[in-house]
Structures are given as structure tokens and as C-alpha cells.
Amino acid sequence: MKNKRSNRVSLKDVANRAGVSKTLVSAVLNGKAKQYRISDKTALLVLQTAKEMQYSPNMIARGLRTGKAELIGLIVTDISNPFYSTISRIIENKTSELNYKVIFGSSDENLSKTEELIDIMLNKGVDGLIIVPCEGSQKLIEKLHNNNVPVVLLDRYFPELNVSYSCLNNYNATKLATLHLIEQGYKNISLIAYNSELSNIKDRISGYQETMMKNSLETSIHVKSVDINNPTPEIEKALDYLITKKNTEAIIFITNALLVAGLRSLNKMNKVIPQDVAVVGFYGSELFDLFYSPITYIKQPIEVITEKAVKMLIDKINKGENFKFSKSFIEPELIIQDSSIRPK
Amino acid sequence: MKNKRSNRVSLKDVANRAGVSKTLVSAVLNGKAKQYRISDKTALLVLQTAKEMQYSPNMIARGLRTGKAELIGLIVTDISNPFYSTISRIIENKTSELNYKVIFGSSDENLSKTEELIDIMLNKGVDGLIIVPCEGSQKLIEKLHNNNVPVVLLDRYFPELNVSYSCLNNYNATKLATLHLIEQGYKNISLIAYNSELSNIKDRISGYQETMMKNSLETSIHVKSVDINNPTPEIEKALDYLITKKNTEAIIFITNALLVAGLRSLNKMNKVIPQDVAVVGFYGSELFDLFYSPITYIKQPIEVITEKAVKMLIDKINKGENFKFSKSFIEPELIIQDSSIRPK
DNA sequence: CTGAAAGCGCTTACAG
DNA sequence: CTGAAAGCGCTTACAG
Fold first, then answer.
1. Is residue A266 in some structural domain?
2. Is residue A124 part of a domain?
3. Cα-based distances in Å from A273 to A138, A188, A293
4. With contact defined as beta carbons under 8 Å apart, do A271 and A277 qualify?
5. Are A131 and A16 contained in the same domain?
6. Residue of B297, B233, B222 lying closest to B269 (CA atoms)
7. What is the predicted pLDDT for the residue at B6?
8. Do residues A184 and A295 both lie within one domain?
9. From the candidates A59, A235, A285, A303, which should be mutated to test the interface with B, based on the most B CB atoms within 10 A?
10. C-beta atoms of A69 and B63 within 8 A
11. What confidence tens digit (pLDDT) does each residue in A19-58 have?
């Protein structure tokens, strides 16, 4: 009793009751009865005793022995952000089919938090990591990858790294949005963005930029160093300038937070969508449909993006060294609603 | 090399390099140098070598030995629901201060899924569980509790069970909402709910019911067996009936999903809030503020509710048998906005 | 067909 | 002050 940590039944308990060795019990319960040519009688006995005793294996012990914890680590920027909580749910669903559990952590776009989370998760024995990398984390990810830790990037990637990833095709996303607005007859189209080295942001900006240029239109990009937690004041100033001074007719907001701040500001300024200005956003929410002018938005096939990432990770875990670098860009869809339709 | 599972540095590696025993390294690294009267010189040597080698302990091994995994399991109904993802984030923050990690799972209000999740989490060695219990899970929770597994309920509770919990005071929530509407001069106040044995739902219904009765007003409760995934059609019918046949002047929606469906329906019916009907909801979102008539809602102090639950759980884990049953009802707040102000 | 033994990486009495 | 040994609950060569 001295070293018995819990009252759960162990392999030994089952072996004792069944009158066989632990080896046998382990083999049978792992479905290796045939492989080890264990007699049907013994196998059945073991199976029954295990069931009677409601035995279930201690995964910690198994994990220590096999080096596989059947656990994966998920690092997002903020689990309470609907985009990432949706991703978390999909990861949960996909991995649970494969008997993996997920531990998660939020980095808040912070490098040292990311580092800390990775450390802790590795110590917890995760078999691999799915990471939404924050700005400046390239070296960290590279090191991880070089240490042979299975890792897959989600939502953002590092072009210089041979680390697998699954992302939205962000370039095409803003291209799609821009083309749509051009087709509607808009010429003065502005982009509200913020300053970032992250691939998703950079790609969104260049998708807009290049599409405008190809159509011989002047670009108007408002890259602001907004306070992510309170972007409204900055956005309000920018919008006021764009609409009153620059005759902007249509605006693309490249993140959800920017869109929300934008809608708030436009309401405050008494600008009517799309009469005064057309609007396109990123990533929808059913709540936007309740807005007086339902918002046109870029739809991310989150499910597909996430499933790919999970598949890559599991493959990598299973194949180890033999796994080869894999990347995937998922195509966006433009959901056209009232907010971007040019009034006649 | 044969049994070396990874290239991470182990206690043994540090001990070898420092030329001391594993015991010593373990003691020093766990801050027990003083306790074991280890010489400052040795302690320093160990500390430095460990740092040089970037040693970090394998928590799986430690967990197996100590029986503590520093891991807690969180079971919500759906992690992608903003309410629960917010809860998850708070739990993450609170537990990480205490060096715990969280594994999560979504039950989808499903008993057998809940059961399965609990099993898996126990096998993963969690030290305790925070559970949002689904309907019919009382026996399951009771069994868990009787097996001495530290468990705390969140958001919902079982009055007959001595299992600790932290919940909103749901009774007072609808009481508050009802009183507010009465003060505004409304008399025909309806409640949109659904059928459930869950404490939170039952309490919300009775809070409304009793408040109406105390004020000698007739109750009008629409308890529908709505399809949670697509409540709109059912809600639309109910609203049409209430407003046109029953002269309902104000409506309380007791969940967020019902509110969203309700707003959609009212839009469709061209009913204007609050001119045609006043509305109060549960749980806000910044997106509701973009609605033409910002919605009055019950604010749940999610942070407080969740922190209490975490505290209870950690206390229970630490105190074991000596922990006594603890419950907490957190008081709601009514955020009054345009949707429930009676037009003059 | 079956079992004894080693070992995963720790911690913890215990002995000296 | 320090180290050898046992043991957490498994799996996996290995021997017979």
C-alpha cells in the first residue's frame, strides 16, 4: 500500500486475478494475442477479467515507456477568440478520432509566452505541436523543428522555413475582395490593415496592392500601429480622413477586430453602408447578419485548413524522420452581402 | 542508446556531468537543498550544470512517480461557444499561475460523450476535473466524486449532490430582468426558454415566474423543445403568436442562442425594438452593440465564476479528503441599453 | 504459448 | 552532507 498512488486497478491487479503474467495481459489488451500466439482460452480469460475489474490503462505509465503520450499541444494566440476556439473544436474532433487529447495555451502574440508554452508542453510529453506562430517566433520554430519535434504551423507560415503549414491563401483573399469591389464600379478602394511581419497580414496587403495596380488603380493602404485591444480611436481617425479627404468609396478591413472597430466608427460618424461607403470584412459571424447592412466577408474554410494541419501533424508523428515537408494553401470564398453592393 | 526515447537531457545526464547522484540533482532542482543540508558548493554546481545543459524535467516521469500530473481536465459543452471559450481562457490563465496545464473536451450536452471524456482524462492522469455537467449526468458525477476524484461543477449544479460548484445566481438574473421590465411599465412580459432539467435553465425560469407572480402579473413562458442547432423556425412561430395574439410587450430570452434566433425572427417580421417589443437577453457580445437597438442583457461575471471554480478545484486537489463541500452563486448584473427602454 | 526482467525518468525513504 | 535502491505502471526484448 505504501507506494500505491491510487485505488485504480492496474495491470498487475488484472494479472493477479487472472493468474497470469503482466506481459500476457498487456499483450492481450493491446490486441497482440494472435501475434504472440496466445491461446484463445487465456486471451478470453484476460479480456473478461479486465472488463470485470473495469481496468483502463494508465496512459502516463504507458507514455513514459513508449515515449508516446497521445497528447498534442495547441498554441493559439487566444483561445477565447472565436476564430481560434472554432479551430480548437475542430482539432478536438479530428484528434479524438485518433485517440489523441489536446492541451492548449494562448500566446497573446507574445514571443516569450510562446517559448514558455512550448517548453511546458514538451515537458508534459506532447507528441507534437500545432502552433499559430506569433511575430518573431521564426527562430524558435526552427529550433524546435531541428530538434525533431513534430510541429505544424497554422494560419501563418514562415516562407524561409521547411516547417509544414496549413493556411488560408491570404493573397487570393484580398484579391477576391478587391476584384469584387472593382466589378461593382468602385475605384477609390482603401485597405485598413496594421503593421506586421506575419505572413497572413503581409499576404493580405499584397493581394490588394497587386490587384489594384494590375487594374491601374491607386492604392490607399492604412497600415496603422493600432492598439489591438482598443483599435477604435485610431480607426476612427483613419476613416474620417479617408472618407472626407480622400473620397474613399469602399473599404476592406483585413481582420475581424479592425472590422468591428470600423463598423463602430462608421456608426458614430453616421456613415451609411453601402450608400456612403462599401465595406468588406474578414471572417464572418452570425451576429454580423443582424447588422442593418449584412457584411460581405472573406470566408475561411476553417474546417479544411485545420483538418489539413492535424493530418500533417499526425503523419509527421507517425513517420518521424521519413516525413517530408508539406504545405497547403486553402482557397478563400467571398460571401457577398449588402454591404458591398453599389447602390444604383 | 537502445532505450533512450529522446535526445532530451535527463536527470541522469545532469548527474553524470556534475559528478553527483541523481538524488542530489533532484533534491537541488526541487529546492530542497537546505532541507537535505546539501553543501552550497554542490548545490551551485548542480544548478549551473542543469542550466548549461538546458535540463527540464520530464513531467510524465515525475507524474508517474508522484501521482500528480499537474494537469487538469476541463469538460465544457462546446469549446467553440464564445461563453465556454472565454471560460477556457480564464481557466488557462488561473491554472498556469499554479503550473497546471489544461486538457479540454466538448460534451455537446451528451451524456455518453461526457462519460468517455472523463474516462480518457482520468487515464491521462489529470489531478482533477472542472465540468459543465450535461443533463442526466448526475449519477456519473456522483460516482466520480465518490471515487475521490477532485471535481468541481461550473455553470450548472446538482442540488442533491455534495459536489462543489460555482455558478451564476440564475434565479436573480431573470428576477433582475423581470423587475426592470416591470419598472419600465411593461405588464405583458414573456419568457422564451426551452425544456431542460438543468439547474441554470430551471432557475432562470423560476426567477421570472416568481417575480411575475409577486407583482400579480400573468406569466407567459414559452418552453419549447427547440432544435438547439436551428432554433429560428420554432422561435419565429412562438414570437408571432406572442406578439399578435397575446399582446406581448416585452420578451426575455434566457440563452444567447435563443436571443440570436429571436432577433433574426423579429427582423424578418419587421418588428422594431423596442417600439414594437422590448427585448432582454443573456450574455452580451460586443457585436450586439452594433445592432440598431443595443440589447439589454444579463451580464455574467464569468471571470469571478470561473476563478472560484479553479480555486475550489486546486484546494480540493491539495487538501484531498480534508476538503469540504463548497458552493458559490455569483450575482449577475443587468446591463441596460436601448432595447428594453419603454418609448415615451 | 508464457513469464521474468529490464527500463522509461523521475522521487523518496533509507542508510551511512 | 551524499548515494544506492526501490518503485510508480506500463511495454518490450528475450528466454524457454
1. yes
2. yes
3. 40, 15, 6
4. yes
5. no
6. B233
7. 59
8. yes
9. A59
10. no
11. 998 999 999 998 888 888 888 888 899 999 999 998 888 8
